[in-house]
Amino acid sequence: MKKKITIDIIILIAILIFVNLISISVFKRFDLSRGKIYSLSSSSKTAVKELDDRLIIKAYFSKNMPGEYADSRRFVQDILSEYQAYSQGNLKFEFLDPADEQELKKEAQQNGIMPVSMRVIQDDKLEIREVYMGLVFHYQDKIESLPMIKNTQGLEYDVTGKIKKITATGLKKIAIFDPDEKNKFATIIQFLSESYEISKIDLTRPVENDIDALIIAGVEDSLEMSQLVNIDQYLMQDGNIILFQDRIVTDIQQQSATPINSNLFRLLNTFGITIKPNLIIDAQCGQVTVQQQRGMFRMQTPVSYPFFPVINNVNKDNILVKNLDYMQLIFASEIDTTNIGEDISFEPLLYTSENSSEVTMPQLDISYYPFLNIDLKKVLIDEPKVVAGIYRGTFVSNFMDHTKEENAVGSTEFGKILLVSDSDFIKDGAGAGVPGNRDFVLNAVDYMVSEGTLIEIRSRETQFNPLKEIKPGARKLVRWVNILFPSLLLILFGILHYRKELKRRKQIGELYE
What is the CATH number of domain 40-163? Predict the structure, then answer.
């Protein structure tokens, strides 16, 4: 018997050793979370598998972290371990604590990792503690850094983005045309510059051939003929245009709205692209703060404002938007899809909700008064409106007689125009502050220049999960179920327990009779 037990123990130990040897070369993680946010996407795995040289990641993390950031170190270590496992030996990482070593402090700061002062309550005392929470990437002679990791949300995107950037032989180029030149898109430009080479152009000269995408945003006046020609010719050379364009210019302070009369719309119309001169209103909307009289006092009150549609109705068949849950439009117009040419296809991307409508010419009233104290879902009953989409196909030039370029092109079969009928969507102080808007822009650029690797990663961690609204009768039913069900469950448990106790007593009584 003892011999058999000994043999079983030896076999068990052998199996454990064998499994551990296999685990050294085979890595597998089972992630049951929604969107699998605790494991790497296939894009990240591909990015590290394609490394052709050693990549070193130095994680400067303080060991004695404040409570709210204590899990960050563990999360970072777990995700870096997974990157390392899929890198086929080309990615290594190490954790360093610069707290007590001056050389490490100096090294971290030289690489852009600065200490952050945090207030910590310990032993009933308030302390100011300096902590390090950053990553530095070393590849060949290049260095990239993530200076501060306060939030682990989106960390995979940041890490993979840095890996792609530091290993790239040359960044793709994006040109931005801002007609006002007031630097209204600084936030979006900052995010794009992490992955692309960004330049601003005025379109008075032809767009360079190496520009992978052209962003045009917020045209409110007519353009010069040379600018129209250069837009046209960039498209004819298989260019990718991303257009954020209003049809109505508004002033919410003055409560005024005026149609934009620009020759850009005439150019777009020749391609079958039409933005209606209206303003969309939607029951699913954001809010504005207004002053209202309450007795003797004037108070700031948030009011639903249907001119600020909240978008979560997207084309689930397109990778660009299928994982985006929340976007915010500001005074958007409807895209007319009835006049598209036969040789051009249109794929809608964003829609308003099923409770939409429009404000049309000539009276463009943007006041909030008509929508006070009413159920917007009962009065806004139109079908969803299209507010963003992609045009593809054969585009024919309208300016062959106006260009002096010897290499002018008369048509293209591979042009692409992505249109969003709202330029506030990406402006600082407006839509650029909405994470979903930012993710849409980054996805749009990636999609248009065929850099789809990061689209899969971005927005994997859902930020907006609104509860489905139910009818008033159903709400009452749910409320009463919540009230009565626990009590009924307790009563049922008591009855069953009582019957079990009676049965036990009866059995005991029978034993002693």
Answer: 3.40.30.10
Q: In this structure, is the dihedral angle defined by the CA atoms of residues 470, 464, 332 and 449, taken in order, positive or negative?
A: negative
Instruction: Note the pLDDT tens digit of each residue in 2-32.
Output: 666 777 777 778 787 766 666 555 555 555 5
- Predicted confidence (pLDDT) per residue in 309-355, tens digit: 999 999 999 999 988 889 999 999 999 998 888 889 999 999 999 99
Closest CA to 430 of 332, 324, 313: 332
Q: 488: pLDDT confidence band, cut at 50, 70 and 90?
A: confident
Topology of the domain comprising 172-448:
Rossmann fold (3.40.50)
Domain boundaries, the chain: 40-163, 172-448
pTM, entire model? 0.78
Tell me how far CA of residue 124 lies from CA of 68, 120, 121, 127, 453, in angstroms. 17, 10, 6, 10, 48
- The string of DSSP letters for 13-72 reads HHHHHHHHHHHHH-------SGGGTTS--HHHHHHHHT--S-EEEEEEE-SS--GGGHHH
Determine the residue type at 126: L
Strand boundaries in 67-141, DSSP class E: 91-96, 116-122, 125-131, 133-139
Amino acid of residue 70: A
